[in-house]
Amino acid sequence: MDFRERLRDEIAFSGLSNKEVAARAGITIRSLVSYVSSQACIPSAEVAVRLARVLNTSVEYLVSGEKSRGSQDSTNEDERKLLYVYKNLPESQRKLLLAVADDISKCLGH
């Protein structure tokens, strides 16, 4: 996986549209599309930092796929998938999922 793919995955995980990410990072949508497309343009360090902040990740992760040593994000891939599903559910289904999770937790004695 390369920068382009990790950036695309982080955008999808965030639940934000490309337009929202671009606006929050202070770049044009055209620039963002060039970073995630097959053109595989690499942003400047300043833009990469802004993108990482918007996506709540690190530049190190976007570039290398490695988490920073001091990173607070210890979320594994399964947890990320669950969060992605949760974020993309309608509110009524979120409540249902939380109720199921609460029932499971009670059965496990947590």
Can you count the beta strands?
Answer: 0
Low-confidence stretches: none
CATH superfamily of the largest domain: lambda repressor-like DNA-binding domains
**How many domains comprise the coordinates?**
2
Describe the sheet with the most strands: none
**Which secondary-structure class do the elements indicate?**
mainly alpha
Tell me, briefly, the overall form. Answer: elongated
The CATH class of the largest domain is: Mainly Alpha
Could you tell me the mean pLDDT?
Answer: 85
Q: What's the N-to-C terminus distance? A: 37 Å
Contiguous helical run count: 7
Please estimate the helix content.
Answer: 55-70%
CATH topology term of the largest domain: 434 Repressor (Amino-terminal Domain)
Beta-strand content bin: under 5%
Based on CA atoms alone, the radius of gyration comes out at 16 Å
CATH architecture of the largest domain: Orthogonal Bundle
Query: Helix and strand string, N-terminal first?
Result: HHHHHHH
Show the helix and strand layout.
Layout: H1 3-14, H2 18-25, H3 29-36, H4 45-54, H5 59-64, H6 77-87, H7 91-107
Helix pairs in contact: 2-3, 2-4
Notes on the protein architecture:
There is one protein chain. The protein has 110 residues and is mainly α. It folds into 2 domains: 3-64, 434 Repressor (Amino-terminal Domain), CATH 1.10.260.40; 77-107, no CATH class. The protein has helices at 3-14, 18-25, 29-36, 45-54, 59-64, 77-87, 91-107. The radius of gyration is 16 Å and the shape is elongated. The mean pLDDT is 85.
